[in-house]
Amino acid sequence: ASVIRPIDPDKPDQGKEEIKVPGGTVIKPDGSIVLPDNGGTINPGDKLPEKTPDGYIAVVYKANGGVGDDVIDLVKGTRATAIQNPFSNNGRTFNGWNTAENGIGGTAYKENDPIIVDSGKSITLYAQWDAVTYKYSAMITYKANNVPVDETERD
User: Fold this and answer.
1) How far apart are CA 60 and CA 14, in angstroms?
2) pLDDT, tens digit, for every residue of 46-103?
3) Angle at CA 115, nearest 5°, toward 123 and 18?
4) Which of the four pLDDT bands, split at 50, 70 and 90, describes residue 44?
5) Reduced to 3 states, what is the DSSP secondary structure of residue 40?
């Protein structure tokens, strides 16, 4: 199941986050998220991943230049599975996840790879996109006005 809520409850027009919750989770009318098996309660003002309950991990997925709201996968235990990419990026090809926004020096994950995190902690994964490739290219040649082609105007 998923819960969609504003990233910042005080500024609901500034984006949303999708929280994937385990089966058996109860969403109260006030927006509180009650986790199963006495897993605790996440109140509407609690910020994830900072308020990840003990016994759970939070895997935060960011579009990293792509289009789509953040996704937070809240998982009981210490092991999660990297999700399928929910984002788009203007025709660019998704190339996996990385703990580094620029993909350099971080840990890379492919969709469905196992992710292991200490209980009560979180990890943020950034979508990695292939470079834009273009079907056509162009060459622009500059020729100064009123100057023969083999000469250059100088000051």
Assistant:
1) 18
2) 988 999 998 999 999 999 999 999 999 999 999 999 999 999 999 899 999 999 999 9
3) 55
4) confident
5) strand
Place of tokens 């250059």: 152
pTM for this structure?
Answer: 0.79
How wide is the angle at C-alpha 29 spanned by C-alphas 27 and 33, nearest 5°?
30
* Contact indicator for 96, 81 with CB cutoff of 8 Å: no
- Quote helix, strand, coil % in the chain, to nearest 5: 0, 35, 65
Contacts 24+ apart (CB under 8 A), 11-15: 15/69, 15/70
C-alpha closest to that of 52 among 120, 134, 138: 120
Contact (Cβ atoms closer than 8 angstroms) between residue 25 and residue 53: no
